[in-house]
Structures are given as structure tokens and as C-alpha cells.
């Protein structure tokens, strides 16, 4: 069960994103369902963020047996190797939004983070948004929750968000955040909760990407059209629902998630009400710990994955299933795995 968190207040005057802002999403552990990388890619396309600032592809950063290079045909018909890496890009025709996208590095995170922040300082970046997605006990039939947090007092005050008390394993986003703090650059973390049972290597999650795009637009005060993403999200939800309906155990588990979410979202939600709903579910003979439930969810989804909206077969195979957590992410971009719910 996920605790109810206060929503960020985007209506307040927001100095956080008023200057040049770097939005970060890297394929890999931080990118369940390719949700974060797809969201930031959408941001890039619509805001025309395509001016090369820095390319990070030092071979010391990558394990090529994990993040595989790709052989492609160049414009002259010659075969070329595309090496995994990441790119910091800026606005083509003026603007204040920059992006860091690509593959999460495997090695030397501290040097990598230092290189990222050095590039930020060269283009006067004053704030960073770390975007990620984690697997969670969330129903696919409800809105995808997005959590914001920060360890900096400015964003906490302006956006009415909190810091984190998380302690545990971490990812490269935390290394970037730590280096940013040393340089005096404010950081906000934004994470989407992706339904774990609907996760499939062949099927990205456009519904989570849609939620992230909407939250980014509000935080950054930019206009982003999301109509096509909404259509993709509806098609994705229909596919997952078909798979769920074919498996009785999985269907029961999803119904439990839906009921719990509805209780948590209600204005009258209390700890006692949520506990009562949980006890009722157990009394019905269900097993809330059956992560993924039946076997239908991946097989049925993958059969139509090649035609899924938003599917990009050119993506590197480096991305794994992402962090698996029942809790909120911390302000440095990592899932909070504490048992205090």
C-alpha cells in the first residue's frame, strides 16, 4: 500500500525553473517501462531541444556487453558503429530547457557526474529535474501517480514538497544530484509509479510517460501537446486489461489494487480505512503479495508489442526493468524502500 502524499503546488510563483533547467532521464535502472526516457524525448521534440552541448560516450563509462553498441548503415551506405552514451542538448532557437538523455553509465559515476555538472556550469544551468520511473503496486486502470521531492529548501518551499529520509542502494541520478548540490544547483526529483504486473520488455508504458509529460509541463511552465500520448495510453490500457481479464488470479489482484487506490484517494482516507480495506481483501482469500499474479500479463502483451504505440525498436537493450519498490522515490531519484508506509 502506498501512503498518500501532498500534491506539489504549481500555482505558487516558481523561481526553481525560471532559469536554464536541465531535465535528465537515462535508459536503464531508473526507467521502468521506458516511461521517463520517452517523456523527456517528447519534451525534446516539442520544445526543439536538439542543439548539441556535450556528448558523454567515454568507453570508461560503459560495459559494452550490457549496453551493446549498434551497427547501422550510414547515409553513404557504409556500416558504422553507434556507441552507447548520453547527450546534453540545448534549445535550437533560444529557450531555457536543456536535456540529458541516453544510456545510464555502468562505471565511474563520480567522474561522469562531475562531467555533467561541468557542462551545466558552462551553459549557466541553475536547476536540474531528475526524471525516473519505478515498478510499484499500482493499478493500470487509474491515473499514474507522479511524486516530486527535493533536498533543497528553495523548491521545498516554492512547490510545497518534501525531502527524503531514504537510505539504501542508489543509482547514477543520485551521483548527479550530489555533484549538483556541491555546485549550488537546485535539484527536484520526479518519479512515476509504473504497474509492475504490466511490465514487459517489448511494451513501453505510454500512460506513465503521459503523466510525467504533464507534470513536467506544469513544473517547467511550458506548453506541451499530449493528445497523441493520451491515445497511446488508452491503447496500452486496453491491451493490459485484455491480458488481466484472461487470468482470474491476476484479475483479483488488480481489483484489490483498484479498491485500495480508491480508498487512498478519497477525501475521507485514513490509516484505519486503508487497513480495513486490506483486511477485507485478505478475508476474501486473496494474496496481495502475488506480484505479477498469473502468467498471462507478459505473454499476452508481448504478442502485440511490435505494433504498440510509441514503440521504438532502435532503443539500446541496456534498459532493465527498473527499480522495484512499493514506496515513494527519494529526492535524489531513488525508490524509498523503507517499511514505514
Automatic annotation (TrEMBL):
Gene3D superfamilies: PAC-like subunit. Residues 318-341 have a biased composition (Acidic residues). Residues 285-341 are annotated as: Disordered. InterPro entries: Proteasome_assmbl_chaperone_2, PSMG2_sf. Pfam families: PAC2 (PF09754). GO terms for cellular component: proteasome complex. Keywords: Proteasome. Coiled coil: none annotated. Residues 308-317 have a biased composition (Basic and acidic residues). This is Proteasome assembly chaperone family protein.
Amino acid at each position: 500500500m502506498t501512503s498518500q502524499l501532498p500534491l506539489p503546488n504549481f500555482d505558487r510563483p516558481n523561481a526553481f525553473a525560471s532559469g536554464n533547467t536541465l531535465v535528465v532521464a537515462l535508459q536503464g535502472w531508473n526507467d521502468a517501462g521506458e516511461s521517463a526516457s520517452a517523456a523527456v524525448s517528447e519534451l525534446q521534440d516539442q520544445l526543439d531541444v536538439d542543439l548539441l552541448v556535450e556528448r558523454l560516450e567515454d568507453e570508461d563509462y560503459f560495459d559494452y556487453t550490457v549496453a551493446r553498441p549498434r551497427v547501422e548503415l550510414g547515409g553513404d551506405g557504409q556500416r558504422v558503429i553507434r556507441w552507447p552514451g548520453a547527450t546534453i542538448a540545448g534549445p535550437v532557437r533560444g529557450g531555457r530547457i536543456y536535456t540529458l538523455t541516453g544510456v545510464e553509465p555502468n562505471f565511474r559515476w563520480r567522474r561522469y557526474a562531475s562531467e555533467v555538472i561541468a557542462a551545466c556550469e558552462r551553459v549557466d544551468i541553475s536547476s536540474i529535474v531528475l526524471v525516473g520511473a519505478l515498478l510499484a503496486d499500482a493499478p493500470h486502470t487509474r491515473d499514474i501517480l507522479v511524486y516530486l521531492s527535493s533536498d533543497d529548501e528553495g523548491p521545498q518551499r516554492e512547490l510545497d514538497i518534501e525531502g527524503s529520509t531514504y537510505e539504501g542502494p542508489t543509482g547514477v541520478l543520485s551521483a548527479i544530484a550530489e555533484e549538483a548540490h556541491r555546485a549550488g544547483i537546485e535539484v527536484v526529483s520526479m518519479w512515476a509509479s509504473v504497474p509492475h504486473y504490466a511490465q514487459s520488455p517489448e511494451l513501453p508504458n505510454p500512460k506513465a510517460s503521459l503523466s510525467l509529460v504533464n507534470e513536467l509541463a506544469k513544473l517547467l511552465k511550458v506548453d506541451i501537446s499530449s493528445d497523441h500520448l493520451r491515445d497511446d495510453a488508452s491503447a496500452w490500457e486496453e491491451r493490459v486489461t485484455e491480458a488481466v481479464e484472461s487470468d482470474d488470479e491476476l484479475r483479483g489482484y488488480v481489483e484489490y489494487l483498484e479498491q485500495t487506490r480508491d480508498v487512498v484517494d478519497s477525501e475521507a482516507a485514513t490509516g484505519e480505512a486503508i487497513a480495513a480495506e486490506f483486511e477485507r481483501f485478505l478475508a476474501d482469500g486473496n494474496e496481495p503479495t502475488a506480484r505479477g499474479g498469473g502468467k498471462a500479463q507478459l505473454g499476452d502483451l508481448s504478442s502485440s508489442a511490435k505494433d504498440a504505440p510509441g514503440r521504438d525498436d532502435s532503443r539500446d537493450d541496456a534498459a532493465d526493468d527498473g527499480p522495484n519498490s512499493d514506496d515513494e522515490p527519494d529526492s535524489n531519484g531513488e525508490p524509498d524502500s523503507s517499511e514505514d508506509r
